[in-house]
UniProtKB/TrEMBL annotation:
It comes from Geoanaerobacter pelophilus. Gene3D superfamilies: Cytochrome C3 (3.90.10.10). One of its GO terms (molecular function) is heme binding. Its cofactor is heme c. This is Cytochrome c7-like domain-containing protein. Keywords: Electron transport, Heme, Iron, Metal-binding, Transport. Heme c 1 binds at H35, H38, C44, C47, H48, C66, H70, C81, C84. InterPro entries: Cyt_c_III, Multihaem_cyt_sf. Heme c 2 binds at C69, H85. It comes from the Bacteria. The keyword Protein biosynthesis does not apply.
Amino acid sequence: MNRPLIFVFLLVSFWSVSAYAMKFSAYNGDVYFDHRMHRLLYECKACHEGPPQHFELDHESGHKLCIGCHRKESKGPSRHCSDCHKTS
């Protein structure tokens, strides 16, 4: 196999694993998470323990991971529920 073909394969694999946007349902409004943007800015280990894999966020883990990081980085929403939770 030549190098350009390997590079294309790896690139396609990366984009297929790295989902673009995810929706987490919550009683007070859905939370939309732009995985692609976060993936471009941070390493997988910033959120994932061990190899990256799908995981579900519940109320406690979502707030700890998301709000905790946003406050630590002084970026993104972290003050009001409606900053993240959107109702239709």
